[in-house]
Amino acid sequence: MTARFVGAIDQGTTSTRFAVVDRRGRIAAMAQQEHRQLYPRPGWVEHDAAEIRDRTFAVVADALSGAGLAPGDLAAVGLSNQRETTVVWDPATGEPLAPAVVWQDTRTAGLCATLAGGAGPDRFRTATGLPLATYFSGPKLAWLLEEVPGLRPRAEAGEALFGTVDSWLLWHLTRRHLTDVTNASRTLLLRLDTLAWDGGITAAMGIPPAMLPEVRPSVAVFGEGRGPLAGVPIAGVLGDQQAALFGQTAFGAGRAKNTYGTGCFLLLNTGERPVPSRHGLLTTVAYQVEGRPAVYALEGSVAIAGAGVQWLRDNLGLISSAAEVEELAGSAADNGGVYFVPAFSGLFAPYWRPDARGVIVGLTRFADRRHLARAVLESTAYQTRDVLAAMEADSGVALDTLFVDGGMTANGLLMQFQADLLGVPVVRPAVAETSVLGAAYAAGLAVGFFASLDELAALWAEGRRWVPQMVAGEREHLCAEWQKAVERTLGWA
Questions:
Q1: Which one of 29, 66, 299, 458 is at 20 to 30 Å from 397 when CA atoms are compared?
Q2: Closest Cα partner for 13 from 324, 241, 267?
Q3: What is the pLDDT of residues 446-461, one digit of tens each?
């Protein structure tokens, strides 16, 4: 194979990146563009799917031209994407038929309660591994079919397609209506045992089956690229958190990672069998290599992590850039008794309380902007601890090290506090953008650019390690105060 690189599209909640990755797992070039966050009503979060498509094509062109590369220099391109965000589009024109409903959006709370009925929120959990919650894309699609004028008859006539962002971009890159098992497992419509759409659930939600994409393994060739990737195989697709697990090369059962991005997502590889959760976690598909059984994971999903820092910047104006938060928070010796619970979209794992709303508690005249900044950072670590406790209870595995990745891991104050709160070392790889690596690795493995999972695992290298320094008594006090703050969020909506 003459191509020297593989490429990765990393389409996230707030921005889209394209990276060029070499055989040693190093990023040789990257371009990135943000897209708008739209909030038309309280609890509603939307994206413009056409804007995401256009910026995806733009960053591909920018990264290639900036590095002096042509599409032919890429053996394949993989795709990592924000999950659950729901897009409907016209297959004749390729244009969206409604705004994309983002994974953080809570407009489907009433619909989820109706679907739950007397069976409760676990009505479909045995089949799908998921509770009925606003997070997932199946109810979002059901809502769009009822609320967007003319959409249902168009869908029933085959004139409207559904997909998460992977499907939307794959359609524009290959003109094929496809998804992979990881993204499909986040819809509340896929059976974990057969990896096929569940006809009973789609009927219960009123979703025409013709809208749904074909489900493929994650590590496979999806089609030949078009536009700025003309002729390049699109050959690996993973939801962003599964891509991060893949990029961390956590291929063995018992391996776990936590990604700190817009939200925060802790995944534990459970091997070739789905493990039901009894403590508020999600059972999901971790990845599937074509021709092999699927690998499953337990996941704890936190809605607001880096988005809390964005809220400080964009809504409150306390900082002018996200990078400033560490210095501001670090200028206070502690949180001054202030706790921030960012339940802007309710609480996700392990609580699953859509009625929760964000609170700031513990305010006194002593508290100032430094303490609020610190409380925002610390909230991410507290939420991670809650999820990790649930994961250990479900799996019976007590982690001795937390492997981390994502943009917020550049914040040393947060990472040290995370190690202190957990009482175990926190380790970041040499390349922290593991969702990019996961998409690139999956694409390269699918076309033979990388020979095996073992070859990929050998590319992992430690970048930095934080060890706990906090005494147990202080840790217990802080966590007890956090739980008191969480209780104050419940029952608002």
A1: 458
A2: 241
A3: 999 999 999 999 999 9
